[in-house]
Specification:
By secondary structure, the protein is of the alpha/beta class. The chain is built from 6 helices and 5 strands, in the order αββαααβαβαβ. It has a 5-stranded mixed sheet, sandwiched between helices. Helix 5 packs parallel to helix 6 (133-141).
C-alpha cells in the first residue's frame, strides 16, 4: 500500500471517534471523543448515562419529552457528553491530559469547552458543528486551536 493511501493522523483519529460513538446509548445523537498525546490515544469517551443508571434507550429521553432544542439546557439530560466521559476516564486512571488534542465527532458544547480549557487541552479537531457557539468562542479566546476536519 502506498503512503498516499493511508489516512492522515487527523482522519485516523476522527475515524476512531466515530467507532467510539457507536457505543453511545443516547437516542438523539451518538458522539465519540478521544484524547490524544504524541499520536497515542490516552482516553476515549462516548455520550451516555453514568454507570449503574438506566439507559435513555430503555427509559426514554427527558429532552425529547420536554422538547428541548439541541445545544440548550444541557442540565436537562441523564447523560454525560463524550468529552466529559473522556476527561473522567483520565481522572479515574490518574492520567494527565495536559497538552492533549481532543478529537470529537462534534464540536464541544460550552460546558465541555470550559472543562477542556481548564484541563489543559491545546487543540480540538471535530467532524461536525454543534448548536452552541459559545464553546468555540471560549476555546479560541483561551488559545485552544480549533480545527474542523471533513
Amino acid at each position: 500500500m502506498a503512503a498516499s493511501d493511508r489516512p492522515s493522523w487527523q482522519e485516523y483519529f476522527l475515524n476512531i471517534t466515530r467507532l467510539v460513538a457507536e457505543r453511545s446509548t443516547c437516542t438523539r445523537r451518538k458522539v465519540g471523543a478521544i484524547l490524544v498525546r504524541d499520536k497515542r490515544v490516552i482516553t476515549t469517551g462516548y455520550n451516555g448515562v453514568p454507570s449503574k443508571i438506566s439507559h435513555c434507550a430503555d427509559v426514554g429521553c427527558l429532552r425529547d419529552k420536554l422538547k428541548v432544542p439541541s445545544g440548550e439546557r444541557h442540565e436537562l439530560c441523564r447523560g454525560l457528553h463524550a468529552e466529559q466521559n473522556a476527561i473522567i476516564q483520565a481522572a479515574t486512571h490518574g492520567v494527565s491530559i495536559l497538552g492533549c488534542t481532543l478529537y470529537c465527532t462534534n464540536m464541544p458544547c460550552s460546558i465541555c469547552s470550559k472543562m477542556l480549557i481548564n484541563a489543559g487541552v491545546v487543540k480540538i479537531c471535530y467532524g461536525e458543528g454543534y448548536a452552541d457557539s459559545l464553546g468555540e468562542e471560549m476555546l479560541r479566546e483561551a488559545g485552544v486551536e480549533v480545527v474542523a476536519v471533513a
